Amino acid sequence: MSAEPLQTVLRSATREVVIGHDRPFCLIGERINPTGRRIFQEQLREGDLSAIERDVKAQVEGGADVLDVNMGVPLTDEPELLAKAITMVQELTDLPICIDSSVVEALEAGLSAYRGRALVNSVTAEDDRLELILPLVKKYDAAIIALPNDHDEIPMEADKRVELTGKIVRVATQEYGIAQADIVIDPLAMPIGADTSTSLVTFEVMRRIRDDFGVNMTCGASNVSFGMPDRHTLNAAWLPMAMTSGLTSAIMDARTPKIVEAVKAADVFLGHDDWGMAWISAHRAKQAAADAP
Amino acid sequence: MTPEEILQALYDETLTGNAPRVLELTNEGLDLDMEPQTLLFDALIPSLEEVGARFERGDFFVPEMLIAGRAMAGAMERLRPLLAETGVETVGKFLMGTVKGDVHDIGKNLVNIMLEGAGFEVIDLGVQVAPEKFIEAIDLHQPDIVGFSAFLTTTMPMFKANMNALEKAGMRNDVIVMVGGAPVTQEYADAVGADGYAADASQTVKRAKALLDAKRSKVPA
Q1: What's the rounded Cα separation, in Å, for the pair B16 and B21?
Q2: Which residue of A has its CA nearest to B110?
Q3: Under an 8 A CB cutoff, do B153 and A226 touch?
Q4: Nearest C-alpha of chain A: how many angstroms from B128?
Q5: Which of A73, A149, A193 is nearest residue B62 as measured by Cβ atoms?
Q6: What is the ipTM of this complex?
Q7: pLDDT tens digits, residue range B71-130?
Q8: Cβ contact B188–A229 (<8 Å)
């Protein structure tokens, strides 16, 4: 028997976003992240956060439901930077935020600056990480993204990822009193260019996690096309396949219409957009924009 | 096939990553009494160099690089013992690993392929390599260069931990240290006291050769 499908509720000060298996896919914009952006890194190091304004605007216009905020710049005060960035993003938009750092102090600083109910990105199945991060999640009443990998390499077998998901769910709910609905599992999407069978494993993991635990899932979806040509087309094909397998959200490129439209189209076919009303409204809005002088 | 045909076919099949055929051709070449170093330096290495050049230009993609590297690795497994017997010198010995706490290896593996393609002997310790593992391996293999790879801002501090371990073991002056990975910068490399940094795989090869030349010119022969 399948587990009951759960709903994860995120909030900003004024807006609520619900992630769930019978709802439209939740698009988490990935762009506010300095990794691989040399100029942005330089700016952040000098305390210049102005580029964030542009990133917020582009992603809100592109159709993001939530914005990921990562300030992982080496040789800076990441907690201070992340808190500042979160305050700034909340002044610019009412979308909820996914607070993204592997530095515990930065997560805490981000959570204390945030107004609303955040999504924390992320914890792994490693005991020391669970011990450090889950109390914060509980204290600030947030939801948490959890990766089913432990101290060894990223497990390539579906069994191991499902087993580690079970461990995370058990520890978070029983030892820290976190609701199962507030655990969002990242089934680990790896680049197809480095291993031809990797996506099939990830899809299997998604189906099993959905059926066994009913929890929501998200992942870094742009990663799947790393090292390949025409990445947008690959990303746009991969997301609907993942959605069919049980993925309910992704940290993704929300600025590229081709990718966002693929997700919205999949919502229609999966029965997550009743009578295609959202699809039709989006079409009208696009037409109106094109007709505008 | 003539030796010339074997070399040409070996070059072509490595370029397209046909591992079974590359191994067959290597064996055919050896059966014809071709020298292992001829197969290596006149076919395999030029082919991998071409793979790297195409990758750098954006004409080749990650999977093509990986299968070409795998094809060469298969041939090298056959050739390495023979090369050792004949005392052929490699360009240099490069010990590589992703630091402790980090499981990312795609970038590191691409760098390994480029290094092998440039004639380096590469010893890859894999991912999650603790400082004491690096020390052990340096002691065992006596590499010219050791490379630390990190993909996360949170695991980059392991560079410093590795450097401290080298100092403590009294090995700091025995090896050239290079660092790299997506979030790593020249400033960061300088801050941890590494000898070299490169932003991508092909620059790593150039930098490694330059560092090696500089070191060898300092040491009297």
Answers
A1: 10
A2: A194
A3: no
A4: 7
A5: A193
A6: 0.85
A7: 999 999 999 899 888 877 788 999 999 999 888 888 899 999 889 888 899 999 999 999
A8: no
**Are B72 and B53 within one domain?**
yes
Structure tokens at B8: 């040409």
CATH of the domain at B40: 1.10.1240.10
Q: Are residues B149 and B113 in the same domain?
A: yes
Q: Distance from A194 to chain B by nearest Cα, in Å?
A: 6
Q: What residues of A are in contact with residue B55 (Cβ under 8 Å)?
A: none
User: How far is residue A191 from each of residues A131, A196, A198, B57, B77, measured CA to CA in Å?
Assistant: 30, 9, 7, 21, 27
User: How close, in Å, is residue B220 to chain A by CA atoms?
Assistant: 39
Residue B63 has pLDDT above 90, yes or no: yes
Residue of B nearest to A104 (CA): B154
CB contact under 8 A, B62 and A149: no
From B55, which residue of chain A is nearest by alpha-carbon distance? A227
CA distance A64 to A272: 17
What pLDDT, on the 0 to 100 scale, is given for residue B220? Answer: 59
Residues B182 and B146 in one domain: yes
The answer on B113 and B75 residing in a single domain is no
Domain ranges, residue B127: 93-218
- Into how many domains does chain B fold? 2
Judge: B183–A72 Cβ closer than 8 Å, yes or no.
yes
* DSSP SS3 for A95: coil
Q: What is the pTM of this model?
A: 0.91
Of B32, B59, B86, which residue is a domain's last?
A: B86
Contact B183 A154 (CB under 8 A): no
Within 13 Å, how many C-alpha atoms sit on residue A31's CB side? Answer: 21
Distance of CA A104 to the CA centre of its chain: 18
Structure tokens at A32: 């506010």
Tokens of B150: 């990190």
Residues of A in contact with B184 (CB under 8 A): 74
Contact B165, B135 (CB under 8 A): yes
* Token digits of residue B126: 């894999």
Per-residue DSSP letter, A63: T
Torsion sign, CA atoms A83, A85, A88, A92: negative
Which chain A residues touch B if contact means CB-CB below 8 Å? Answer: 35-36, 41, 72-75, 78, 102-103, 149, 151-154, 191, 193-194, 196, 226-229
Subunit contact B153:A102, Cβ cutoff 8 A: yes
Are residues B102 and B56 part of one domain? no
Q: Which residues of chain A have pLDDT under 50?
A: none
**Domains along chain A with CATH numbers:** 7-291 (3.20.20.20)
B190: which chain A residues are within 8 Å (Cβ-Cβ)?
none
